């Protein structure tokens, strides 16, 4: 039954229009949305935005599971009879990053156009295809390498969901809450990496839930690698249904590509993309590569026991990074992130085996945890910077409450959403390049390259966003 909410006057936004409460129910398209109107936000907006956020989080988490399932599955292939080399295994973990990053760019512009509800449901349900194919193929050690590469590529579409999810969710929240909201969505969604790396070693030993044939490790232990894929199929289907019936399509966010493409002419699109490559690109690339790094560099230590911890630290730190950046400023926190990452990777290098020195696994691992922590902090702070930068640029010199101000505000929201998705797409290629680098060159050389890159990112952040008189303080 429809009802009408009549706001009298908001001290910040002036007279508020009447709102048809029916449109804010689950599953309905929303045409009126004013998160910056304090009265609207407290009476309707916050509740609706929170519902959409908390449905998006588990859907994004399981998408990350599909994206990262190869990072841990690949470590078991040689043990059950697959004749792939270590280099080939690193490449299998890298391929989902290539397709995920490419698909993210597409999803960035499609997501807001189609709507949060429909796009979340559809982009989630399609993930059953690579999961089922992986579960079937991994039971046969004679499966050709090229088939495994194709499956890994399809798993990459799980990573693309991040771009549409973050772009869409950002439209639901006011400026003051965007950092926290995207931090929650991205941070808890990123926990899918830890979930798959923690649970896979456990579920592959469960014969009671296995569908298909068992494989055997060299010591004769039976395992069911297909469980790593099949166990997520019902979860995907349930979450897709929940999104379809529980979320909303925000019509005010629907924008054709012809209007969104303006972001490619904005200098700060490219600068923030560069910085997000440094934060999220490192997070997702290290998450993909760490299990194989442990297995090949410190083979006496359990991948299952340790690999999941780094992504968990990074994911939770992202949440904190968004929250802190809302209060201290994104640029300051981003600088802290890059300095911390550089110092952490120098620590990793110092503990690697070299010559007759066998290195120190615990030193290596603790420094890697620190790198994950600082990358997560930076993930949250950079995503807080983007809407601040574009909002300030578009609203400069305008008077609040005027038609010009309202139009500019909507344009800034549209552009910051598109930039958020685009930067996440480019940064996702870190998932590809970091494992590929470790599979193609000396680990130490690759690590020093990361340190140099983080130093450059620190300078860029300080010059454009943090120093006194910076072009775009954020």
Description:
By secondary structure, the chain is mainly α. Helices cover 72% and strands 3% of the residues. The chain contains 18 helices and 6 strands. A two-stranded antiparallel ribbon has the order 1-2. Helix 1 runs parallel beside helix 7 (175-203), helix 4 (128-137) packs antiparallel against helix 5 and helix 11 runs antiparallel to helix 15 (361-395). The longest helix is centred in the N-terminal third of the chain and has 40 residues, at 38-77. It is globular and about 75 Å long.
Keywords for this entry:
single chain, two-stranded parallel sheet, 18 helices, 474 residues, disordered N terminus, Growth Hormone, Chain: A, mainly alpha
Topology:
Layout: E1 4-6, E2 18-20, E3 29-30, H1 38-77, H2 86-114, H3 116-125, H4 128-137, H5 145-155, H6 157-172, H7 175-203, E4 215-216, E5 222-223, H8 227-230, H9 233-246, E6 249-250, H10 257-260, H11 267-297, H12 303-306, H13 309-328, H14 330-351, H15 361-395, H16 403-427, H17 430-440, H18 443-466
Parallel strand pairs: 3-6
Antiparallel strand pairs: 1-2, 4-5
Helix pairs in contact: 1-2, 1-3, 1-6, 1-7, 1-9, 1-11, 2-3, 2-5, 2-6, 2-11, 2-16, 2-17, 3-6, 3-9, 4-5, 6-7, 6-16, 7-13, 7-15, 11-15, 11-16, 11-17, 11-18, 13-14, 13-15, 14-15, 14-18, 15-16
């Amino acid at each position: 039954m429809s009802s009408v909410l009549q706001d009298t006057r908001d001290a910040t936004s002036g007279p508020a229009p009447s709102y048809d409460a029916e449109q804010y129910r689950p599953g309905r398209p929303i045409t009126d949305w004013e998160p910056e109107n304090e009265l609207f936000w407290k009476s309707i907006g916050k509740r609706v935005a929170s519902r959409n956020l908390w449905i998006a989080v588990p859907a994004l988490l399981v998408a990350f599971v599909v994206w990262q399932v190869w990072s841990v599955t690949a470590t078991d292939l040689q043990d059950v009879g697959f004749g792939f080399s270590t280099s080939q295994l690193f490449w299998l973990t890298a391929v989902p990053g290539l397709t995920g990053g490419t698909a993210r760019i597409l999803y960035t512009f499609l997501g807001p156009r189609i709507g949060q509800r429909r796009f979340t449901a559809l982009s989630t349900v399609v993930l059953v295809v690579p999961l089922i194919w992986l579960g079937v193929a991994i039971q046969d050690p004679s499966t050709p390498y090229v088939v495994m590469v194709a499956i890994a590529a399809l798993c990459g579409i799980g990573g693309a969901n991040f771009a549409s999810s973050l772009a869409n969710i950002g439209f639901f929240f006011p400026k003051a809450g965007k950092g926290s909201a995207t931090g929650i969505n991205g941070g808890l969604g990123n926990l899918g990496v830890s979930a798959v790396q923690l649970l896979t070693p456990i579920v592959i030993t469960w014969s009671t839930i296995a569908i298909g044939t068992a494989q055997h490790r060299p010591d004769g232990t039976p395992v069911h690698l297909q469980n790593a894929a099949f166990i997520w199929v019902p979860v995907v289907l349930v979450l897709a249904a929940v999104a379809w019936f529980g979320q909303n399509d925000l019509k005010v966010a629907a924008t054709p590509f012809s209007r969104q493409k303006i972001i490619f002419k904005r200098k700060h699109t490219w600068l923030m993309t560069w910085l997000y490559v440094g934060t999220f690109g490192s997070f997702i690339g290290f998450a993909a590569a760490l299990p194989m790094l442990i297995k090949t560099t410190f083979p006496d230590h359990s991948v299952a026991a340790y690999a999941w911890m780094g992504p968990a630290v990074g994911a939770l730190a992202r949440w904190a990074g968004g929250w802190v950046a809302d209060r201290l400023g994104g640029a300051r926190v981003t600088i802290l992130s890059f300095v911390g990452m550089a110092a952490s990777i120098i620590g990793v290098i110092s503990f690697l085996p070299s010559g007759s020195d066998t290195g120190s696994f615990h030193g290596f691992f603790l420094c890697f945890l620190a790198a994950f922590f600082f990358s997560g902090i930076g993930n949250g702070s950079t995503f807080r910077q983007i809407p601040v930068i574009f909002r300030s640029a578009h609203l400069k010199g305008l008077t609040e409450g005027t038609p010009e101000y309202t139009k500019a505000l909507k344009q800034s929201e549209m552009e910051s959403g598109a930039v958020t998705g685009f930067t996440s797409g480019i940064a996702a290629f870190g998932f590809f390049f970091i494992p590929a680098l470790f599979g193609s060159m000396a680990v130490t050389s690759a690590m020093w390259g990361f340190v140099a890159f983080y130093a450059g990112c620190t300078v860029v952040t300080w010059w454009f966003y943090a120093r006194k008189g910076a072009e775009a303080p954020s």
